[in-house]
Design brief:
The structure holds two protein chains of two kinds. Helix content of chain A is 57%, strand content 3%. Chain A has 15 helices and four strands. The longest helix of chain A has 30 residues, at 190-219. Chain B is extended. Classes of the chains: A mainly alpha, B mainly alpha.
Amino acid sequence: MSFAWAKQYEPKSAFTKWVDEKLPVPRLVYNAVGAGYPVPRNLNYMWNFGVLAGFCLVLQIVTGVVLAMHYAANTEVAFGTVEHIMRNVNYGWMMRYAHANGASFFFIVIYLHIFRGLFYSSYKAPREMIWLLGVVIFLLLMATAFMGYVLPWGQMSFWGAKVITGLFGAIPFIGEPLQIWLVGGYAPDNAALNRFFSLHFLLPFVTAGVVILHIWALHIPGSSNPTGVEVKKESDTVPFHPYYTAKDGFGLGIFLILFTFMVFFLPNTLGHPDNYVEANPLSTPALIVPEWYFYPFYAILRAFTGDLTIPFTGIVLIEAKLLGVIAMFGSILVWFFLPWLDKSPVRSGHYRPLFNKFFWLGLMPCMGALFYLGGAKPEEPYIVLSQIFTAYYFLHFLVILPIISQIEVPKPLPFSITEAVLGSDDKPGSSTGGGTHPKPKDAVKDLPGRDPDGSLQPAE
Amino acid sequence: MTIRLASIIVGLALTAVLVLWSLAPGLLNFALPEDPPYYAYQEENIQPAGGFVFEGPLGTWDEQQLQRGYQVYKEVCSACHSLKYVAFRNLEQLGYNEAEVRAEAANWNVPGIDPLTGEATTRPATPTDYFPSPYPNDVAARAANNNAIPPDLSLMTKARKDGTHYVYSLLLGYNEPDPEDVAKSPDFETPAGLYFNEYFYNINIAMPPQLYPDLITYSDGTEATPEQMAEDVTAFLTWTAEPSLVERKQTGWFVIGFLFFATILAFLSYKQVWAGLKPKKT
């Protein structure tokens, strides 16, 4: 692990010593989420969402595996087997509502986790790889959630699948054959339902693998923190266990109260009534919308209403549909480039006055508006509004962020995390973080990508 | 530096395409949606005075009401509407005992096979059978109903927005059209074979009005007003859509109560663990 003062795992009993020699899994856990992982002492509640996202993944896998025992992926019976789960399987209604609302809560947690990363610039060196893997996880989750929503084979399942798979048809030349190959026919049918079920079962485990890489990459530089100042010495950190296991336990309790409230009292509020009508390819719903967590991206997709033409000639260069598809995928792919677009040496938004303004007065209202507009009817004024906010979304990441990182004068940073927490450094008794074990004096092992003085101070 | 320059160029280009080819033409032709020239349906549903007994976090079933609602379904709705996800054994939840369910099931005929000849025939239902459909197939359903298929009612209160109130409103919504609204919408008419119902999104519904005073004679002696029958059958259909409704809410109270207790303990242990790290106030 990264810091020289990290506690070492010491097996006590003969059995744990035996295990530690053969396969040191307890040591791995101890170093990953136990006392062997030193974490900045100043993390706020926004740092709870990583653990909560991991909890959501486990929750979805456990409830999903149980549901799969009673479900059948066949268009003739799929809708009926879901009703069978709701009516005949013991506590099947609880499993299904937990799984359906679990997906929504997974995305709530993930969005908070992502926007925490955006505000505190957690994507900056030396943590680029954590961020890149995180975007991969987000893409995997979107694919998994989309395919899961198709499985009940209700009206919105079918028509949502038809709209989203139809996007591939917008690709020039290869679009139509590609779409037919992906769907297994001209429209979603049994072939599509079967492969969606297969992939919906597979992808969570792929996600779990990438999550392990995500955590591995995190443990090389260690966790970021709200000041953005890197850990310098032992008093800046506390061991993950018991300090953050206790804090995450409290956060998990709050999360579970909100989650179970939805499951037991408002289980269908986040869903769509049309999905309690069995899929009917001959009857189109009045308004086709995806699940709420895709609304921002759906708004971006629908924002492009005009073909890109050469003026006055009528020659179409790119069709509107393809522009929308490019923009929708681009809106997430742009996150892959963030670590290199935002070159400000200061991480935390608290010390970046200009960035702070654009984040809270620009990006956050923009995301809120896109969340609303993605679920709105395709009529004015929603179309014009979604075009304005889509434009801002791309300007924010591609233009505003690179420019402000160049011209901004950051506020002075605290010297260290300890100073940020206690007001002044080196007070007697302030160095409580490491517990009682022998301390190597103020030693920081050099990390790749880190300045020699151990922090990234702004040039003044 | 190169990447940021490239990003600024890409960002400006994409925005230019969006603004010049999508937003600008849209703004030139910008028109807010006008009030539709057609007779708009009533989106605000009505509900019985005092609401339904099963609503709210503490609501429970009224078995008497569910049994009356079942009687309305059986004597009125079941002529055209199926209930394919509900089995006769489920009626035990309505307060009938096993023998009563067996006797009730035997009143219904379900498709069967003659054990001697193997020909398709019908037989009395048993508790494990599901409610039979009134029509052999969709074509027959259309033929008998002026080209409209009566939908299955098992999930109706979950398959519509605000479903429980919607079903209640629809059953009582066969009013006269508002003359003022009719004057405002020149295209409004109710074609032959359809019926005006202001809660139906299409305004004109293929289902004729069903509930008339004293249409049925309740076995428990309740007066069969249209409002009473609508309330009872809506309660019954809410039960068919979500048989676990009451069990779910009761489980919820227990789970959330436990979680509150556990979360308070978690909060106290969090404070306890961190107590030694708090900055000393001087």
